[in-house]
Write a structure and sequence with these properties.
This protein is mostly helical. About 75% of the residues lie in helices and about 0% in strands. Helix 3 (about 50-115) crosses helix 5 (about 185-195) and helix 4 (about 130-175) runs antiparallel to helix 6 (about 225-315). The N and C termini lie far apart (about 125 Å). Mean pLDDT is about 85; it is low at about 1-5 and about 195-215.
Length: about 425
Amino acid sequence: MLGTKAATSIGPEGWRNSTLKGIKLSQTIVQKSDKNCDIGRSMDPLPQLRDTVAQLSNEEIHRYTREVRGVVAKLRESLLETNEEIKSLTRGKEQLEKALEHTRKDIQLNKDSQENRLSRPTKEREHDGADDLLSAERSHLLNCKKALEAQLKSVQQQLHVLDQARKRLFNVLQERSRVLDLLCHALSSIANSAKHSARLSRSRTSLDGRLSRFGPSVTDPLGSYTPETDQALADAYDARNRSAYLRRELKDAIERTDKLTKAAHKSVNDGMTQKFSETVTLKQHLTVSHGENRHAIQRAQRWYDATDRARGYSMGPVMSADLSTRERLDRPMVRVFQRHPGTQLPEAQQIIEGGDGLLQSLTATSRNIGLLKLASLRLDDDIRSKSAAASIDGGIIRLRRRKSDHRWTLGAAF
């Protein structure tokens, strides 16, 4: 159509071309504008961009804070578990210190028992089975004391480790909680919000997998679950496991020490009781023997007196003037009998021999009385020694039974 018109046009060609060029340029711009409008309709931000961007930012904030809240919940849970473990280990430490105090008191009681036995009489100081039992008890108690002291040192070190882990957890918890001022910290709210997040919907696993029930499993220095959080949780978990193992060891050590101490204490008490019984039995035998000895002394003394009286009768009066006619060796009957030769009578010789025999009997009886008196003195001394030894051993037995409940002050012994 333009070509037909151009054939009949009378205007200049440049003029017409300039117009056509402007028309084409306008059509091109119109097409480009329409295309840009179409692109704008599909690509350009909507008028509610500020609201949309703010909403997206809020959603991102909500997502991040929910994750942080889950991490904080895990940190708080770990902190509470660490506190409970510190309390449990502290109670175990108190029980261990009590057991160590009882062991020290038993050592002091053993020392007092040995020192008291040194006050026995010299004759009763001979080494016996009770001394062996006391020495064995002291050896066992010293070994128990060393074991309990080593255990106490380990517990104190572990309490320090737990305290450091608790401080680290608290610091991380404070740092993570800085973005949770506008959120509820209840665990139920965290659990409900976790259902709407794919990352937070995983089931709870052990801390070894570094996975929280409410938090992410991958560490990110700029995310909610930072490497510091992961390391703090891991250190606290390891410290709690070590503490639980120490508490089991501590309980076993206390029970083992208690059984060994009671067995040693019972063994010593039984030995001391047996020694006391033996001493009392020997003292009773000594008392019976002492009575028999006194009875023998009295019998010997009566026999000595009777023999001495018989010797006096045999020797006759002290003065010859006191002799009666019938007692004289030259009485009339004898003088008449001796008128014949070979009629010597052995009367005088027999009297002399009888007196010598009575004198020998007196000497032997006197010697026996002296020996009986010496034996009586020895028996008296032995009875006194046995009484003193029995009194000391009985006092030791009563002392050990009285102090077996450990309700007494140890003092400055240790």
